[in-house]
Task: inverse folding
C-alpha cells in the first residue's frame, strides 16, 4: 500500500512539472513589448542649428594726399598771379637741391608725355625714375611731398602689391535568433526607426550643402564688385591728380622768368616727383586692393568650408547618438521576446 502511494506521488509530481513547463512555454511573448516599441519610435535625430561662416575681417586701404605738395601747387598759382616768388617755394627748392644730386635732378627731366601716360594708365615707372623716387621716399625732408598710403588688410595681414561622415552603431544583438517571429518584429521596428533616422540625417546634410552653396555663390560677385570699386577709386584719384599737376605745371612755366633757371629746374623736378610719386602710390594701392579682393574670396571660401565641415560633423554626431539609442532599444526589444530562465 505504501509502495503504491509513493508511485502515485511520483507520477503526480512529474505531471505537474510537465504541465508547468508547457504553460510557461505557452506564455512566451509573440510580439515585442509595446511600451518598448513606442519608445524606439519616439527616437529622433536632434535638429542641428547650422552655424554660418565666420565673417572675413578686412580693412580697406587709405590714401592721403600730401599737404606739402598741395602747398607748393598753391604757391605756384600765387606766383603766376603776383609775380613774386613766395618764400615757401624758395625753401622747397633748397630742400630738393640739398637732397638730390644734379644727375638725379636731371633724370626727372627725362619724364616725357608718353612716360606720364603710361604711369597714369596704371603702368610702372622706368627704372631710373623709380630709383630717384625711392630715394625721395627714404628722405624725411622730401618724403613729405609724397602721399601717405595705408594698405588694406585681410585677416590681419597687410596686402601690398609688389610692382617691377558618422560611424553607424553595430546592429547585431548577441544571442538573438532572427528566425523567431517576435525577434523579426523587433528587427522590423528597428529598421523602420533607422530609415526615419537616415532620412532625417540626409535632410539635414542637404541643408548643410545648400547653405554652403549659397555662401560660396556670394563670393565671386563680391570679388567682382570689389575690383570695380578699386578701379573706380584709383581712376578718380588719377584724374584729380592730373588736373592739379597740369595746373601746377602751367603756373611753373608762367613764372619761369621770375624764378630763374636754377629754382625753376628744382621746382619742376619737385612737382614732377610729387606727381609720379602720387601716381605710383595710387597704382600700388589699386593693385593691393585687388589682391585684397582675391584674399577676401579665399578667406571667405575657407570660412564657408569650415562652417560646412562643422555643421556636417554636428549632424553626423546627432545621427550617431540617435542610432546608438535605437540600437540599445533594439536589444531591449529582443530581450522582451524571451522569458528569462526557461521555456525555450
Result:
Amino acid at each position: 500500500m505504501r509502495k503504491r502511494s509513493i508511485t502515485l506521488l511520483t507520477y503526480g509530481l512529474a505531471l505537474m512539472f510537465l504541465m508547468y513547463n508547457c504553460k510557461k512555454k505557452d506564455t512566451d511573448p509573440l510580439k515585442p513589448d509595446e511600451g518598448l516599441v513606442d519608445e524606439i519610435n519616439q527616437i529622433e535625430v536632434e535638429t542641428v542649428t547650422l552655424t554660418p561662416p565666420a565673417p572675413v575681417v578686412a580693412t580697406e586701404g587709405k590714401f592721403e594726399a600730401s599737404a606739402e605738395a598741395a602747398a607748393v601747387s598753391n604757391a605756384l598759382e600765387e606766383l603766376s598771379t603776383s609775380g613774386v616768388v613766395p618764400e615757401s617755394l624758395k625753401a622747397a627748392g633748397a630742400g630738393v637741391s640739398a637732397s638730390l644730386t644734379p644727375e638725379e635732378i636731371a633724370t626727372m627731366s627725362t619724364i616725357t608725355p608718353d612716360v606720364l601716360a603710361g604711369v597714369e594708365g596704371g603702368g610702372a615707372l622706368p627704372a631710373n625714375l623709380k630709383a630717384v623716387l625711392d630715394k625721395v621716399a627714404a628722405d624725411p625732408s622730401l618724403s613729405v611731398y609724397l602721399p601717405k598710403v595705408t594698405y588694406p588688410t585681410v585677416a590681419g595681414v597687410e596686402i601690398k602689391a609688389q610692382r617691377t561622415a558618422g560611424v553607424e552603431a553595430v546592429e547585431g544583438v548577441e544571442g538573438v535568433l532572427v528566425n523567431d517571429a517576435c525577434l523579426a518584429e523587433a528587427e522590423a521596428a528597428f529598421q523602420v526607426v533607422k530609415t526615419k533616422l537616415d532620412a532625417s540625417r540626409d535632410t539635414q546634410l542637404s541643408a548643410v550643402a545648400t547653405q554652403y552653396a549659397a555662401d560660396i555663390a556670394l563670393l565671386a560677385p563680391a570679388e567682382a564688385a570689389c575690383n570695380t570699386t578699386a578701379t573706380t577709386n584709383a581712376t578718380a584719384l588719377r584724374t584729380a591728380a592730373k588736373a592739379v599737376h597740369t595746373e601746377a605745371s602751367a603756373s611753373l612755366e608762367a613764372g619761369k622768368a621770375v624764378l630763374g633757371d636754377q629754382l625753376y629746374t628744382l621746382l619742376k623736378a619737385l612737382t614732377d616727383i610729387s606727381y609720379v610719386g602720387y601716381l605710383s602710390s595710387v597704382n600700388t594701392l589699386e593693385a593691393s586692393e585687388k589682391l585684397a579682393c582675391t584674399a577676401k574670396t579665399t578667406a571667405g571660401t575657407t570660412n564657408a568650408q569650415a562652417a560646412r565641415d562643422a555643421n556636417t560633423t554636428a549632424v553626423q554626431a546627432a545621427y550617431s547618438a540617435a542610432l546608438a539609442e535605437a540600437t540599445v532599444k533594439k536589444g531591449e526589444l529582443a530581450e522582451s521576446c524571451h522569458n528569462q530562465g526557461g521555456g525555450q
